[in-house]
Amino acid sequence: MKRKRILVLLLTISLVIMVVGCSAQGANISKTDEKISVTDSLGRTVEFESIPEKAVAIGAGALRLYTYVADTEKLVGVEETEKGDSAGRPYTIANPQFIDLPTIGAGGPNNAPDPEQLLKVEPDVIFTTYAGDAAAADELQSKTGIPVVALSYGTEGVFGDAIYSSMEKIGEIMGDTKKSTAAVAYLKECETDLNKRTEGVDQPTKLTTYVGGLGSKGAQGIVSTQGDYSLFNAINAVNVVDETGKTGGLMIDKEQLIKWNPTVIFLDYGGLVKVKEDMMANPEYYAALEAFKTDQVYMILPYNSYTTNLDTAIADAYYMGTVLYPGKFNDVDPAKKADEIYETLLGTKVYDQMVKDYGAYGKLPK
User: Which in 29, 75, 120, 325 has the greatest CB count within 10 A?
Assistant: First the structure.
């Protein structure tokens, strides 16, 4: 009887080991054999046999979106432009190791992808914002033999479905939907919060606003602005430029700004030197502007560098909210909010470095 029990016990243990072994093997097969299929921003279907282990992100803003939602240790190269001055680019400030990665092309708005350089680092996926149409993406994929996924920032500004969709696609492809889902949820939460704080303010009681010094192919002065400005839209502010019916970046006539005479003016730190030079050359012009007379000129951090730094832009929106609606934003410390945003999207606080590079949130420096 004792011998039979031992044999039964041994047989049971053997069966358990076989079952566990088969289950583990099945789990590995399901992971390796699981195909990933996504539709990119150009409507192309891109398929992967398994989760990519090596990735690159090329074109304006592609690396930034990747950095928000995926493992930077899987990056095997970056464009040369991403290795330059990190001022104004929180994602490169947060990832100084990018400078040590192989160069995969020049980068920048006037350069096309470099198939030869890309092939040298052998990525499993190429995320790109270069491709303006499906044919361009297909051509790069054909030249490299590597799956190419087109991303987009869309036309809606800082908050938009194209951005959310691109971030979600990166997460899905790289096997980290938890991180991408959390990042997108946070952006949407900020969008909702900014709107809720300001949507109930009566139009007649709102201050009129203007933003100047916005970068456009380099630093610009006070006349560089935007119609349908996404940050003003986010906080339901009254943008005097919207009277023109124009959208996007534009240069206004200096005299028109005096006619509008906005209550509050925001200036981009990137254009501060130009504005200061103009103030010295034309003091009477600035003396005619109500915002300068009443000391209602405030500085925001530049957020356009190789397209939009979403983190800085949202931080700017919160800061502008504290200026225009102090009662609605009395719980917001702009510096702490900026670091909360940076830490959520990049894993580290970089506001202090942005201040070193440009200056702190506050009024126009004297």
Answer: 75
What's the CATH class of domain 202-363? alpha beta
SS3 362: strand
Q: Which of 259, 264, 273 lies closest to 320, judged by CA?
A: 264
Which CATH code fits 38-187? 3.40.50.1980
What's the sign of the alpha-carbon dihedral 118, 119, 125, 131? positive
Going from N- to C-terminal start, the domains of the chain cover 38-187, 202-363
Q: How are strands ordered across the β-sheet holding 148-150?
A: 55-58, 125-128, 148-150
Q: What is the DSSP letter of 159?
A: S
> Are 153 and 162 in contact, with CB atoms under 8 Å apart?
yes
Burial class (CB in 10 A: 0-12, 13-18, 19+), 220: buried
Residue type, 60: A
Q: Whole-model pTM?
A: 0.89
pLDDT digits (tens, 9 = 90+) for 268-282: 999 999 999 999 999
Q: Going along the chain, which residue ranges are E strands?
A: 36-39, 45-48, 55-58, 125-128, 148-150, 208-212, 224-227, 238-239, 248-251, 264-268, 297-300, 362-363
At 254, which helix (H) or strand (E)? Answer: helix 254-260
